Amino acid sequence: MPAVSTTTTKRADRSARPGFRCSECGWTATKWVGRCGECQAWGSVAEDVGPGGGAPRTVATAPTRAPARPISDIDVESARARPTGVDELDRVLGGGIVPGAVVLLAGEPGVGKSTLLLDVAARAARGGRRVLYVTGEESAGQVRLRAGRVGALHPSLLLADENDLATVLGHIEVVDPDLLVLDSVQTIASAAVEGTAGGVAQVREVTAAVIAAAKSRDLPVVLVGHVTKDGSVAGPRTLEHLVDVVCQFEGERHSRLRLLRATKNRYGPTDEVGCFDLSETGIAGITDPSGLFVSHAASTVPGTCLTVTLEGRRPLATEVQALVAPSAVPNPRRTTSGVDSSRLAMVLAVLQRRLGARLADQDVYVSTVGGARVVEPAADLALALAAVSSRENTALPRGLVAVGEVGLAGEIRTVSGVGRRLSEAARLGFTRAVVPAGSLDGVAAPDGITVLQAGDLAQAVVAAGIGT
Questions:
Q1: Which end of the chain, C or N, has fewer beta carbons within 10 A?
Q2: Binding site for ATP: residue ranges?
Q3: What is the CATH number of domain 84-287?
Q4: Binding-site residues
Q5: What b/e string do you get for 88-120 counting C-beta neighbours within 10 Å, with b at 16 or more?
């Protein structure tokens, strides 16, 4: 009998040894570890039991619900989006909710997710649709109190407080709703899966079961999801891949403004932003939010400059305020609110190096009006002009708006959507605009606004009227 080599035996043992796979990113390992070596997720590595002998597990097909048909014979009307009655939400979703679509709405606690969905559910009920609202975080009495406060009471809006997946699916069978709201997916658990509610296995099972019910019934579903400390959707990464639409609901805790963004949308664009005003009496969409971010002082004040940012495809006028004062400590303060601190440090360094502005021994405080958050580089020029205006104690002319990115060499770089920004500025009554040189080549400026083009910071300061 021929002898079997030791190398061949080890290779066979290695191939027969079970592997372990991360449920978040798919990273594999030969032994179990508590933390994934690729995405650094805890508790996501589980044994990957592949099909034995290379044979497929599924060997027979199940009966089909409907035979395959030519693509031209498919009815497209059933896939049309249906408006929710909330214009700002419809803007983000691409016209409304598609039957059978599963929408994941994520946001921090207290940002207004439940209030928004109660309003959506009540509007759908008033429109003649039967709505099932399942809450797993609060009792039915608590939701009833909120619904009465925001005016979301209707006989066709049915409420259930459940935490068991099987019971939720039973409610769907009995009610046969036209819209399902599940608040939240991390609080529902299945008895057929090990682990507590909110775990990786539980969230995956709950989502898969709800998606199967939605697709088989053409039932639009809205799932509420929690977020982690860094603002991402809690739970396994596969959760975002399973659903059709992922929306982020954002807002500062001390501000009434709320922004809704779509980070994934199979039925519409992902560059639209919805604006809402959250108050004690409910939540309402804001069709023209520019006035929230602009102060209405009677006189001009040094250190303020207006810019126009783009939230998705929507231009928003935002006022940037800067205060430069002598520092009493060896290390001057750099304090920001609504502005990226590292971006401010870069702009101040460029001002001192390229423009000769003495800022190294000055405290600099920068803030936005109305709780707006400015993250795009197009606000660099307004930030620089506001700092120079405060440093020189000279107010910028009334009706001036500045748009442009500041480079490390002191140049003003062009940004996208200059035409849309200037059109919004002209609509709001601005009469002068400082923009990067060459950004309007071949494009006419809007009526009523004078465009001043600047190639670097020195030219921009002169064009703004605060330098020589």
A1: N
A2: 107-114
A3: 3.40.50.300
A4: 107-114
A5: bbbbbbbebbbbbbbbbbbbbeebbbbbbbbbb
